[in-house]
Automatic annotation (TrEMBL):
It comes from Cohnella lubricantis. This is DNA helicase RecQ. Its EC number is 5.6.2.4. It holds the Pfam family RecQ_Zn_bind. GO terms for molecular function: 3'-5' DNA helicase activity; ATP binding; DNA binding; four-way junction helicase activity; hydrolase activity; metal ion binding. InterPro entries: DEAD/DEAH_box_helicase_dom, DNA_helicase_ATP-dep_RecQ, DNA_helicase_ATP-dep_RecQ_bac, Helicase_ATP-bd, Helicase_C-like, HRDC-like_sf, HRDC_dom, HRDC_dom_sf. Residues 30-199 form the Helicase ATP-binding domain. Belongs to the helicase family. RecQ subfamily.
Amino acid sequence: MSAAVMEQARDALRRYFGYDSFRSGQERLVSAILDGRDALGVMPTGAGKSICYQLPAVLLDGVSLVVSPLISLMKDQVDALTETGIPATYINSSLSAQETNERLRGMLEGRYKLVYIAPERLESERFVSIVRQVPIPLVAVDEAHCVSQWGHDFRPSYMGIARLLAHIEPRPVMAAFTATATDVVKQDIVDRLRLSRPERVTTGYARDNLALSVVRNADKRDYLERYIRERRGQAGIVYAATRREVESVHSHLRSLGIAAGMYHAGLSEEERDAAQDAFLRDDLQIIVATNAFGMGIDKSNVRFVVHYNMPKNLEAYYQEAGRAGRDGDPGECVLLFSPADTVTQKFFIERSEADEERKKNDYRLLNDMVEYANTSDCLQRAIVRYFGEADAEPCGRCGNCTDERELVDMTEEAQMIFSCVARVRQRFGVTMIAKILRGSNDAKIRQFGFDSLSVYGRMSGRPEKEIAQLIHALIADGYLRLTDSQYPVVQLAEPARGVIEGREQVFRRVEPAIVRRRGRGRSGAGDAGDQDVYDSELFEQLRQLRKKMADREGVPPFVIFHDATLREMSQLMPRTEQELRGIKGIGDAKFAKYGREFLELLQTAVKE
């Protein structure tokens, strides 16, 4: 890649997006695409994946296609691109036949630099005939994990993307992007999309601005009420596992006087759109939803994500939790865990139409999720290790890292559990092990003769639920493992040997962890380490001006400027056009459209 071309790219980055330099990984991917090479980018939510294909599309001749799974994602990104001065559109099922025809004509006439499409659109013969007539330099696949049957959100419609290449001459650059992917999923993406020797960039999975927490066995309703009230005015998403749970939580919050929206697939399209728009436009700060909500939602100022129920796997969890703090400011991600959540997810797996191999994989992923919910390790490190980063350091921010309670020696209890697992020949699950140690009078225990084992009743002073929780903790910490099946069996892992032989000790914080509020400074932005102090009163005035403009323009507020841009304004207080142009996120088109009103407000604030 020539220096001149990359200088053009940096100039376009400044002119359209308002940034002076690339973030980690962006330059490598942009350079590869502009050099005509395929690319695979695995970058966490908020790391700037979209710029990696939007910027090359601006510089390349022709119309670039972006395959995206959800209508909301397309609309948000097209709105944002239009605001920056880049001609873009989308074609999906929300359009009338007349609107679709007009946009297809626009493609033929070269009116757009980017066209967003749903994967199902590739099955349209008319669309394919248009594609044959238009120069297409780039096909970008967003949420590329959807192409992998081993990922957490496999979509068969994504399988048609590779077939599109046969209709485009010359072959376009193929670029795939996702926020999370294990090594197996990455290779599946490369194979199924037929990427040719792609430039692979993984920027790391750690999100330095997120504080992860797991709250076990809490009264979920009471906890959620307290948590939301303590964060009055902050935008947050509450995820629940089922439609019924969403409606129950939503009704409860409304009964408490907490304004909240609701989103799940059982609502009408009009109801879903209204709830989503109210949330995006900051008319509602809280939304309660199933996982049908959120993929590709480009709202940057979500400050917290609470999972009322445990998701089906860690990839899904991190995708959903990662919708907090997309603007780089502090975000909180809380998982409210109870054993009943596991039963719900097993029901979903069994009810699915997946084959047995897929179900076995789903059970393995569910076990990994349960281990995360019970681990005593740094939560951020547990996640990045799951994705293959073995040398990760503790984050210092998560609920486990900030838990200051004294560690308790649980070696004796661990030895009893390991002994029980061995004596039942590693053939039974967590519940049976807990019942034996508790000394239960269960008929199956008598049937198998387990009431005559030396370990029977050895932990009778503890509730069965607490013993089961300790077993899960030992699984999470690697002393035990579960088989990948609907009724997983507990087995001994190699690290247990040192404990059994008395060479190693096991320590555990045994009480349920309580999520701590992060320290609040003048900014009210949370404990972000080196986060600069800013004028919170001016920040709120800037937000109100942005909201007024957004309502006038008919777009979500973050499409005009992200919170991070407003925060930098309220910190640096620019007084001249040149100073305001120096704020990150203010490109030429946005300055021309909005700069004067913001500058007037800032100049007035400085005078006061």
